[in-house]
């Protein structure tokens, strides 16, 4: 049977993606294919929540003092968006290949509800009330691996990808939910849990990053005391709320400068910085480059 890497390379060949460096939207909604030609040095990035499957190559991601490693046959479950640093490694000169799968709230809540129903009959998954770090790497088991292979095969044909792909994605989300680190996604559906409350605050930060935001307001939104909110936020993200917000703003500013051609002063203002000089200092410290050099 073909490995995930070989089926991914077949997809690259059929779609003429051999020069691709970055994500590519497939015909299945919420599924992106990722390819990079070579290794890349450690750099700041913003990972969205979802499931990432590696088919070829390896990556290390760093968040504060945490390092998460994943490679062929591994998947990454991210319950919340994460500003992090990432380095990628190509093995034997082969390209880095992977899948990025969004986890739609509707699908997540439907599956969690169904799993909860089955839990009343027999125990399917173990849940923990303890808050944990919002990103985990795990190995694909046989069933999960087979579902990934079926999805990549279906992606080869756009008609099949549109019709059959969503059902396979739903199975993949299910496999992640009942896996060893399923609580990373499972707890998002528990509205009253601390993890879900922090996730909603993170959603606010990603939407309203340019606004003036107070910690007191965020804690109130999470229905927590300020001290309890700080503690829960750090348990999930390994960052303080202000550190997390700063990284969102800087990543958004970089996107505006590189992708949209904005000047540094305009980008600073658009992401919520009142002081251009402070923006320049923090930008250089974060990306190890000035806004001017990164735009070139």
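^ structure tokens above, recovered residues below v
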């Amino acid at each position: 049977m073909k490995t995930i890497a070989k089926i991914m390379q077949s997809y690259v060949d059929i779609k003429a993606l051999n020069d691709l460096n970055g994500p590519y939207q497939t015909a299945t909604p919420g599924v992106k294919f990722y390819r990079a030609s070579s290794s890349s040095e450690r750099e700041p990035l913003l990972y969205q929540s979802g499931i990432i499957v590696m088919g070829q190559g390896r990556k290390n991601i760093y968040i504060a003092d945490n390092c998460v490693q994943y490679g062929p046959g591994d998947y990454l479950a991210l319950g919340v968006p994460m500003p992090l640093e990432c380095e990628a490694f190509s093995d034997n000169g082969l390209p880095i290949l992977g899948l990025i799968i969004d986890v739609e709230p509707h699908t997540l809540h439907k599956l969690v509800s169904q799993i909860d129903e089955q839990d009343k009959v027999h125990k399917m998954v173990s849940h923990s009330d303890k808050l944990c770090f919002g990103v985990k790497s795990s190995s694909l088991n046989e069933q999960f691996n087979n579902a990934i292979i079926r999805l990549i095969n279906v992606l080869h044909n756009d008609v099949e990808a549109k019709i059959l792909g969503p059902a396979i994605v739903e199975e993949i989300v299910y496999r992640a939910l009942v896996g060893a680190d399923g609580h990373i996604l499972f707890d998002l559906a528990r509205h009253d849990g601390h993890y879900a409350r922090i996730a909603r605050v993170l959603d606010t930060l990603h939407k309203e990053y340019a606004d003036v935001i107070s910690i007191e307001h965020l804690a109130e939104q999470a229905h927590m005391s300020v001290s309890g909110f700080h503690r829960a936020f750090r348990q999930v993200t390994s960052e303080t709320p202000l550190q997390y917000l700063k990284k969102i703003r800087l990543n958004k500013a970089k996107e505006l400068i590189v992708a949209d051609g904005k000047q540094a002063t305009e980008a600073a203002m658009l992401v919520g910085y009142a002081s251009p000089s402070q923006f320049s200092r923090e930008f250089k410290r974060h990306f190890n480059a000035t806004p001017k050099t990164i735009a070139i």
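The chain has a mean pLDDT of 90.
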